[in-house]
Amino acid sequence: MVCLAFAVLHHLPGAELRRQVLCRVHELLAPGGCFIHSEWQFQHSPKLMARRQPWDRIGLKDEDLEEGDTLLDWRHALVGQAERSGLRYVHLFSRSELADLAAQTGFVVEREFDSDGDGPG
């Protein structure tokens, strides 16, 4: 059995919620099952880094947040429509944070890789 979470965990606010979700995934996987996930590492994109917004824009203070929590100005347009903007919560994981989360929830990291999204990882 395989469980795939593509671009999910970094949109879950709070370390405890992420821990609970991964504990549940671990419970649901059959023995020998595999959990594959990807996490956005937008710090490698100057364009996206320029879209970071202050938390006070939505009434939060830095002390209300965890290290790595980020608010991004998010823009999108559908074909034939004007561009719209909104705000998007993203948690920026460090490798050690992901390793700790795996250990806390019963997983073992077997492989990891970086990808810029422009080709195979």
Q: Provide the helix percentage.
A: 10-25%
Q: Give the biggest beta sheet.
A: 3 strands, antiparallel
Query: What is the number of strand segments?
Result: 5
Number of helices: 3
Q: Report low-confidence residues grouped into runs of 5 or more.
A: none
**Overall body shape:** globular
Instruction: Give the radius of gyration.
Output: 16 Å
Report, as a whole number of angstroms, the end-to-end distance. 22 Å
Mean pLDDT: 89
Briefly note the structural class of the backbone: alpha+beta
Beta-strand percent range: 15-25%
Oligomer: single chain
* Order of neighbouring strands in the sheet with most strands: 3-4-5
Pattern of helices and strands: EHEHEEEH
Structure characterization notes:
The chain starts with a strand and ends in a 17-residue tail after the last helix. The longest helix has 14 residues, at 15-28. It is globular. The strands form two sheets. It has a three-stranded antiparallel beta sheet with strand order 3-4-5, with no helix packed on it. With 121 residues, the chain is of the alpha+beta class. The chain contains three helices and five strands; from the N terminus they run βαβαβββα. The mean pLDDT is 89. 23% of the residues lie in helices and 23% in strands. Helix 1 links the parallel strand 1 (2-6) and strand 2 (34-38).
Offer a quick outline of the entry.
The chain is an alpha+beta fold. The chain is 23% helix and 23% strand.
